[in-house]
Design brief:
Length: 132
């Protein structure tokens, strides 16, 4: 009788463990993107920002951002806004945002990016690019 209770207890523990593992997989699948990937580190962001800031023309700045976005790089909206702020003209800022938008992990903070645009039409286009 005692051995049956032990076996039942072990099976219950195994089933509970299997249920917990399934629950964890479900939670991970439904976690926001920002919890699943890591954004650019402060050091790498500083390097990218300095390169963008030191580029001679906005076109070169946009090209640097495009190249930076070719890999598995992710940005927060705050980081994106900082980099976009180094670009002078609104149309070039929008071009940079087009490259960065698919790599943004916290789109609910998009207002930080919208603040970098001067005109309502640019803000509307930025919202369209961000998917909102």
């Amino acid at each position: 009788m005692k051995s049956r209770l032990i076996i039942i207890a072990l099976l219950a523990c195994l089933l509970a463990g299997a249920n917990e593992a399934t629950a964890q997989r479900q939670r991970r699948r439904h976690e926001p993107k920002e919890q699943r990937v890591e954004c650019l580190s402060k050091d790498k962001l500083a390097i990218l920002y300095d390169k963008v800031k030191k580029a001679s023309f906005d076109g070169n700045r946009v090209d640097l951002i495009e190249v930076a976005c070719l890999g598995e790089v992710y940005f927060t909206c705050e980081q994106c806004a900082r980099i976009i702020g180094a670009i002078t003209f609104g149309d070039n800022r929008l071009a940079a945002l087009r490259h960065m938008a698919p790599h943004i992990i916290d789109p609910r903070h998009a207002y930080l990016i919208y603040e970098k645009f001067s005109f309502a039409s640019e803000k509307d286009e930025a919202a369209r690019i961000m998917g909102g």
